[in-house]
Each structure stands twice: as C-alpha cells, then as structure tokens.
Amino acid sequence: MQAIDEAGLANTTILRIANRANVSAGIISHYFGGKEGLLEATMRQVLGDLGQEVARRRAAAGGSPRAQLRAIIDGNFDRNQVSRAVMKTWLAFWASSMHRGNLQRLQQVNDRRLYSNLCFQFRRCLPRDEARDAARGLAALIDGLWLRGALASETLDAERARRLAYDYLDGRLARTECLA
C-alpha cells in the first residue's frame, strides 16, 4: 500500500514493492504472480479488515436497526479504512476492477455485502421497496463521501462523514418507530 501511496498503481513496480518490503522481487512474483495478484491479495486483506471492523462494531451496538446501521457506517469510516495509503489502494482497486474479472468479483462481493446488510436493517423498519431505496441511498452516500474524501487534498474528516450519513439515516427512519 505504501508503494501505491507514493507512486500510484501505474508507476508501482514489483521491484519498488520488493524494496519497500525488504524482500526479493522473485518472492513477490512467486507468491502473487505479479502486481495484479498482489493488489488482489492486499484488497482481500483490506476487505477482511473492513468486514471484521463492521462485525465488531455491530456486536457492540444495540440490537435496534438504527444502532446496527450506525455501526455499519462507523465501520466504513474506521480510521483503518481512511488512511491515505488504504484510500489510494482502494482507488487503484476500483479503477482496476473495471477491467479485471477477479477484482471485479471482489468489488461485487463488497458492494453486495454492504447493500445486503443495510437492506436487512432498513427492512426491519420500512416496507420492502422503501428499504431497498434507503439501502441504495445510504450505500451511495457512504461510497460518495468516502470517494470525495479520497480525492481531496486534505485528510478525510471521518467524523463529519459519519454525521452526514447519520443525518441521512435518521431522515429515512424519521417516520418509523425505529429512530430510538
């Protein structure tokens, strides 16, 4: 991730990565098959970390749909997901996933997981179609806030991003009994 942070994916070579990691380029090529394989392995780790953080926060949250949805928001804006190196790696992954089937599948799994988790919680409070729309909207807001933060020259204000997502959440739940 540090090599991508420093030079971008296009300018990151196996040799640069090997030098940063203090290993031989042959080791990286042997275990990962090249830069694309290393990006895939890195993203599997980042996605695993994201899933674990969301699960940890959901387990610690109350059982209400609102608490569960806030935990999902919090996990997506966890400090480990918003470091510059991780954010640049995410951007490289997203761009590459449009052209590489293996990365596209990872992105689809991540996208479906977020949508499914959001939809399940919204469905506890809203009719099916409204729950689906609310889940799509919150997923788009999370991704959009995250993307704008990743592209900004300053560090993402994760607390502000959370507040904006919470406001959307509370607006969607305002007419229900799930706001508590």
From TrEMBL:
Example GO biological process: negative regulation of DNA-templated transcription
One MF annotation (Gene Ontology) recorded for this entry: transcription cis-regulatory region binding
Metabolic or biological pathway, per its Swiss-Prot or TrEMBL entry: Amine and polyamine biosynthesis; betaine biosynthesis via choline pathway [regulation]
DNA-binding feature ranges: 13-32
Superkingdom, natural source: Bacteria
InterPro entries reported in the protein's UniProt record: BetI_C, DNA-bd_HTH_TetR-type_CS, Homeodomain-like_sf, HTH-type_TetR-like_transc_reg, HTH_TetR, Tet_transcr_reg_TetR-rel_C_sf, Tscrpt_rep_BetI
Keywords on record: DNA-binding, Repressor, Transcription, Transcription regulation
Domain annotation HTH tetR-type: ranges: 1-50
Cited function: Repressor involved in choline regulation of the bet genes. Repressor involved in the biosynthesis of the osmoprotectant glycine betaine. It represses transcription of the choline transporter BetT and the genes of BetAB involved in the synthesis of glycine betaine.
Name under which the protein is recorded: HTH-type transcriptional regulator BetI
Organism from which the protein derives: Modicisalibacter ilicicola DSM 19980
